[in-house]
Design goal:
The chain is an alpha+beta fold and 132 residues long. The chain is built from 2 helices and 8 strands. The longest helix is centred in the N-terminal third of the chain and has 11 residues.
Length: 132
């Protein structure tokens, strides 16, 4: 069994990323980059663009199946994602699937786990892990 973090220790550290859905990604990239002036970090297929917005990353994307009705997703940065997920499940949270790696860049993997809040809004926990 995964050990839970110490009682009183915050599980969710900060908002690390917010996702906003787009219907026309090139149009959305132009808006966020050129109109709003946000620095474009990178684009990744299929249908993703990432911008820096202070200490928060903004992901503009074509929604994946199952996420079409989401307008925004809050991604909370955590440490020890498996342990945090286990603690949240003990508290009644149901994950859509186990936290897993969604992206690898060099020696870093980005892990995420998705769940819904009490109102049906999609939320996620995320952790960057060193690998290799």
């Amino acid at each position: 069994m995964t050990q839970s973090p110490h009682p009183g220790t915050p599980l969710l550290i900060e908002v690390g990323q917010i996702a906003v859905r787009a219907i026309d990604l090139p149009r959305a990239v132009a808006f966020y980059r050129d109109t709003l002036g946000l620095p474009l970090l990178f684009q990744a297929p299929p249908g993703l663009a990432f911008f820096q917005c202070g200490s928060v990353r903004l992901m503009v994307s074509i929604p994946e199946p199952g996420f079409e009705s989401c307008s925004s997703i809050l991604y909370f940065t955590v440490r020890e994602i498996e342990s945090v997920a286990a603690t949240l499940m003990e508290r009644g949270v149901t994950f859509r699937g186990a936290p897993h790696a969604v992206h690898k860049a060099g020696t870093t993997e980005l892990w995420m786990g998705f769940f819904d809040d009490s109102e049906g809004n999609t939320l996620a926990i995320m952790e960057s892990k060193s690998v290799g």
